[in-house]
């Protein structure tokens, strides 16, 4: 029952926050505020429901050094997406046409914060962590990675390839990041840094959700393998390659730190809650 209770609690925050953002569409200040509140509320609710259902302190989302972990993840995510854009631009697939809108970028800041927090709490904090306890790291990584890619099929310009790319470059990579660090702050930051760089800075389509207007006025062109097409650069082979490289690095770190849970390993608590901390 703890699985269901935790999933429903965090999903409720994500749903209410998403409805709030949709209701104020076009009001950038309210989008920023509602997004920030949703992110904070998600953390509060996750900590509360884990305490209630597992009778423990949620150390995977602990307050000790959380800012540094969040910042480190954000830098990794931003650098990763910047590298993808640089490679696409080098082959003529990304074009900067001028300055965009700082105010729209602020609105995206709130939206991306809410998305990063709620999705990481759901997929890494609840799904991956609990499935890993019962099946081990490898099966949990595969299952949650595929599920993460599959939910992106509902996006307006989604494609099967785009969802597959998301599963590989984000679903597997973010789960590996959690396995390596055994805290949620780093993958939350990484997710946020990647998404905000895409929409808030480089102004490209994020996961097939239509145009983004950020700090730069830009466009993409060229074959889907290069630019990602209507799905955005996350559908580019460069993004998939970047995700694979980081996944391998994180899994290597996880193995080095003894964080890989064997198949069918069963404990009362996830190792994430007992070892943490990078």
Within the largest sheet, what's the order of strands?
1-2
Order of SSEs, N→C?
A: HHHEHHHHEHHH
Number of helices: 10
Contiguous uncertain segments of 5+ residues: 265-278
Number of strands: 2
Secondary structure: helix percent: 55-70%
Shape: globular
> Taking all residues together, what is the mean pLDDT?
92
Oligomer: single chain
Tell me the strand percentage band. Answer: under 5%
Computed structural class: mainly alpha
Characterization of this structure:
The protein is globular. The protein is built from 10 helices and 2 strands. Mean pLDDT is 92; it is low at 265-278. With 278 residues, it is mainly α. The relative contact order is 0.16. The longest helix has 34 residues, at 102-135.
SSE layout and pairings?
Elements: H1 2-23, H2 28-54, H3 66-90, E1 94-99, H4 102-135, H5 137-151, H6 160-181, H7 185-201, E2 216-220, H8 224-227, H9 237-256, H10 272-275
Antiparallel strand pairs: 1-2
How would you describe this structure in keywords?
278 residues, mainly alpha, 2 strands, 68% helix, disordered C terminus
Concise account of the structure shown:
This protein has 278 residues and is mainly alpha-helical.
């Amino acid at each position: 029952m703890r699985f269901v209770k935790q999933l429903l609690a965090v999903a409720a925050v994500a749903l209410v926050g998403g409805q709030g953002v949709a209701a104020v569409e076009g009001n950038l200040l309210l989008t920023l505020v509602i997004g920030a509140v949703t992110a904070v509320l998600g953390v509060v609710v996750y900590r509360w429901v884990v305490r209630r259902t597992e009778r423990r302190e949620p150390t995977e989302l602990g307050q000790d050094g959380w800012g540094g972990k969040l910042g480190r993840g954000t830098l990794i995510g931003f650098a990763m997406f910047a590298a993808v854009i640089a490679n696409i631009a080098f082959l003529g697939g990304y074009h900067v046409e001028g300055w965009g809108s700082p105010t729209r970028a602020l609105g995206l800041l709130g939206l991306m914060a809410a998305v990063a927090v709620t999705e990481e709490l759901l997929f890494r904090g609840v799904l991956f962590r609990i499935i890993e306890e019962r099946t081990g790291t490898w099966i949990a990584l595969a299952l949650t990675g595929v599920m993460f890619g599959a939910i992106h099929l509902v996006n307006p310009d989604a494609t099967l390839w785009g969802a597959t790319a998301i599963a590989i470059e984000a679903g597997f990579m973010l789960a590996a990041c959690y396995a390596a660090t055994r805290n949620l702050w780093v993958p939350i930051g990484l997710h946020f840094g990647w998404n905000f760089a895409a929409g808030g800075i480089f102004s490209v389509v994020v996961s097939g959700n239509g145009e983004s207007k950020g700090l730069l006025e830009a466009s993409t062109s060229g074959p889907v393998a290069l630019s990602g097409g209507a799905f955005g650069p996350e559908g580019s082979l460069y993004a998939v390659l970047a995700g694979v490289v980081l996944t391998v690095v994180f899994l290597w770190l996880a193995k080095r730190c003894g964080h890989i849970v064997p198949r069918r390993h069963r404990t009362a608590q996830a190792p994430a809650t007992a070892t943490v901390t990078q």
